[in-house]
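Retry 2 of 3 after timeout on previous attempt. Resubmitting structure tokens to design endpoint.
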């Protein structure tokens, strides 16, 4: 057995997102989000599930902080609901909404848990979508206004901020594939969304710096490694293209102030409209990069596949199967991604802001779950993270997705990612075996492997 010790002060945590856990979708003056609207439409989400109640975290937050404390979490990654704070997306501030986060942050700090706050984990105010949403350049200004409201209220106490979570998913699943809110299928809108998300990130970072707040600010990208399905030139080019479309389209402007040129040429009329000075705004120095990692994909040229002419599917490492999402398990892909990001961009600090798996959890009579598959999943990925640290990656922390079972977007409540089980009938929380295993690992700051 090997004992892998992590650096002193390594921040072990767990993550959730507002829409997935809070519920209280229309309480205390909260405005409607695009996810509220989407889930209330027929057949968009499995079984007609919605986030109306979710884990009822809006009412159970104190109990949830106590639970985190009992697991010894050093940090908790949460997101703020923009329409809870600004019901119309701009202008009028909803004090009860802001007050909720204020109390939550205070309680976390009292419990010795560092809040890591994401401003945008997908739940755009519907009022903003009604006037064009992310493809509308005005949304950049409205997001910045919202960010400023959040910084002014919480910036004295929140040590870590992220502007956006997985802008790739917002742009392509929301505005191109149309399978996520707001359910639009238009490549040009998707690519313009990419640009406006990046620009709004840059403006929010500028606002944060301008306010002289004491914490750190960054952004969270989901990054997958891609490999060509064959040695064929067309497959290798398709692999380059998907990497540029889904990853470099964000990382190149953020760190190098330019979009990947071959992709822009490929996109042709779908390439984003960029105003003078935008790329300088986007390329703000950030304090950390958050990396969400779930799987690795193979990519092949496909002449039938729309504008981008490729198809991708995720793959498993030899001997490893798939999770309950049907995603291939590939722990070493995490090391690959971390080393690649560090080599290319020399980011000052990196965090794994999400990693975890959905599993078929079978509770025993007490509601507890012996989720050995999840433990093995986490073990493999924690090992990969440790190897990345040994290879020189400045990895400072790791957030398991998720603290508790929650609303898994279009899969509704059918997919369970939590290390804590939620009984949706009673809202009872029960730590699974993985939560107790994680608690012990955190206490030792080491993985017995
Ligand atoms: C990520 C999302 C997160 C969660 C996991 C499983 O893409 O950021 O909210 O749904 O996937």
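Retry 2 succeeded. Sequence:
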């Amino acid at each position: 057995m090997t004992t892998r010790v992590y650096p002193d002060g390594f921040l072990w945590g767990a993550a959730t997102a507002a829409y997935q856990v809070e519920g209280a979708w229309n309480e205390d003056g909260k405005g409607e989000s695009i996810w509220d609207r989407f889930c209330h439409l027929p057949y968009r989400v499995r079984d007609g599930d919605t986030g109306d109640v979710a884990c009822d975290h809006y009412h159970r937050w104190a109990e949830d902080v106590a639970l985190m404390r009992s697991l010894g979490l050093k940090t908790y990654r949460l997101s703020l609901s923009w329409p809870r704070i600004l019901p119309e997306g701009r202008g009028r501030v909803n004090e009860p909404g802001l007050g909720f986060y204020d109390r939550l942050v205070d309680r976390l700090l009292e419990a010795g848990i560092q809040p890591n706050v994401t401003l945008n984990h997908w739940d755009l105010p519907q009022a903003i979508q009604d006037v064009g949403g992310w493809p509308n350049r005005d949304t950049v200004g409205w997001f910045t206004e919202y960010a400023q409201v959040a910084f002014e209220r919480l910036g004295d106490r929140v040590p870590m901020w992220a502007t956006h979570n997985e802008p790739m998913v917002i742009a392509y699943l929301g505005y191109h594939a149309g399978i996520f809110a707001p359910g639009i299928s238009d490549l040009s809108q998707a690519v313009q969304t990419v640009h406006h998300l990046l620009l709004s990130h840059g403006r929010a970072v500028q606002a944060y710096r301008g306010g002289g707040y004491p914490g750190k600010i960054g952004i969270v990208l989901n990054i997958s490694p891609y490999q060509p399905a064959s040695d064929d030139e067309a497959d290798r080019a398709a692999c380059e293209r998907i990497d540029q479309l889904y990853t470099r389209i964000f990382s190149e402007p953020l760190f190098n102030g330019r979009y990947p040129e071959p992709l822009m040429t490929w996109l042709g009329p779908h390439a984003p409209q960029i105003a003078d000075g935008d790329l300088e705004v986007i390329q703000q120095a950030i304090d950390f990069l958050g990396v969400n990692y779930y799987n690795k994909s193979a990519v092949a040229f496909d002449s039938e596949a729309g504008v981008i002419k490729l198809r991708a599917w995720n793959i498993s490492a030899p001997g490893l199967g798939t999770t309950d999402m049907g995603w291939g398990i590939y722990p070493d892909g995490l090391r690959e991604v971390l080393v690649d990001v560090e080599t290319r961009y020399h980011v000052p600090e990196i965090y794994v802001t999400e990693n975890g798996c959905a599993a078929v959890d079978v509770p025993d009579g007490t509601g507890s779950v012996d989720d050995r598959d999840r433990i093995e999943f986490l073990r493999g990925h924690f090992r990969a993270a440790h190897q990345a640290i040994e290879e020189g990656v400045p990895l400072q922390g790791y957030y398991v997705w998720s603290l508790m079972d929650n609303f898994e977007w279009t899969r509704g409540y059918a997919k369970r990612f939590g290390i804590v089980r939620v009984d949706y009938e009673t809202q009872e929380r029960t730590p699974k075996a993985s939560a107790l295993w994680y608690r012990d690992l955190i206490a030792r700051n080491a993985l017995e492997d």
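Attempt log closed. The chain has one domain: 3-448.
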